[in-house]
Amino acid sequence: MSGSVSEIRPGVWKIRVSCGFRADGRRRYLTRTIRGGKREAKAVCAELTIESNRLRLRAGDLDADTLAAWLALWMASRRAMVSAHTLETQARAIRLHIAPNIGAVKLRQLSGTGLSVFYADLIAGGLAPASVHAVHALLHTALKQAQRDGLIADNPTDFANLPKRRRTEAEVPSHDDIARVLAANAGRWEATAILVLLATGIRRGECVGLCWRDLDLEAGQMRVERNVQVIGGQLAVLPPKSEAGRRKVQIPETLVAHLKDYRRRQLECMMGEGVRPEDDIDFPSMRWGLQRPSTFGWAIKAAGARASILLSPHMLRHRFATDMLLGSVDVRIAQSRLGHAKAETTRNIYQHVIECAQQGATDIVSEVLGRVTSGTHSGHT
């Protein structure tokens, strides 16, 4: 490795250190311009020489000088590693947030301070802290690979300051509100869908992908094996979000009775129209095919509106989780029923519910102690 220090004007020095070759065979340099004396310039040259030795660039490496160029290469390398839905989500984050703002920055010029400013700008632009954390996680993983490949010496995301997450408690409809919604939608398919969501806590896409062959009504069991998503504008039937998402769920007798009645009415309607729903779907579209998850969500929202109540599939999932945790169900069982990959995820999302359950347990213990100590005298006997 060789370096040069030159004074381009009085008190301004340009330092350049060779560090290998580009993909096209041209030599690559690390450069920096500083103000000061020759001693300071030589010190910076020594620092760049150390950095160039750490970069380990090799002849023939693919050239990805800018962040946008590296992310394009990194995304292409992940096509066989992650789901199509994850790729689309990450590509959207790069397109909307990263590329327009810092995509042109060279990899080695990225810094923790620069990324901190970038995150602050995203917050100022209205992006939620949770979304900024998702952008940070994407950058951290991508730049960690760049570090492994020798394109950067350190991962700048390790030195960035992230905005604090706003802890917001999920909206949970009351049981009375849900009863009013069910009464306003009696005889409609939405009422059965609401009961399924309330009794199982499955996700919107999982409910859309539910088929009758997934239900064993005699045994009171439901298999969750599909998650319907929109990829590239087209419906895609995918596995659940994680391996833990593929699960068996026990369903109560009350729901079994509702499902049997709903199935009977659905078959009568099918016979009347002379059609058969594709793949025996529980909650098909008007044309008996798969519904879009967004269409299903709007249908549940419309069902709530008939009773002047705000409702969504996700709110019903929160209601299910809240009922379990307040009913002293172990967090690990709740994790399994909700299809979370880790119990930590369940704890983080429903921390406020767990705290309420803990207080309830304390109240019960306090009541027990009050009973067993009534009539006793203080002091020693």
Layout of secondary structure:
Elements: E1 3-9, E2 12-21, E3 27-35, H1 38-55, H2 67-77, H3 84-102, H4 112-124, H5 129-148, H6 175-184, H7 189-200, H8 204-208, E4 215-216, E5 221-224, E6 227-231, E7 234-238, E8 247-250, H9 253-273, H10 293-305, H11 313-326, H12 331-338, H13 343-349, H14 351-373
Antiparallel strand pairs: 1-2, 2-3, 4-5, 5-8, 6-7
Helix pairs in contact: 2-3, 7-9, 7-11, 12-13
Kindly provide the name of the CATH class of the largest domain. Answer: Mainly Alpha
Largest sheet geometry: 3 strands, antiparallel
Number of domains: 3
Strand-pairing-aware structural class: alpha+beta
Q: What is the ordering of alpha helices and beta strands?
A: EEEHHHHHHHHEEEEEHHHHHH
Number of strands: 8
Approximately what portion of the residues adopt beta-strand conformation? 5-15%
Form type: elongated
Q: Between the first and last Cα atoms, what is the distance in angstroms?
A: 87 Å
- Counting DSSP H or I runs of 4 or more residues, the number of helices is 14
**CATH-defined architecture of the largest domain:** Orthogonal Bundle
Low-pLDDT stretches:
57-62
CATH topology of the largest domain: hpI Integrase, Chain A
Spatial ordering of strands, largest sheet? 1-2-3
- Radius of gyration equals 29 Å
Mean pLDDT: 83
CATH superfamily of the largest domain: Intergrase catalytic core
Helix content: 40-55%
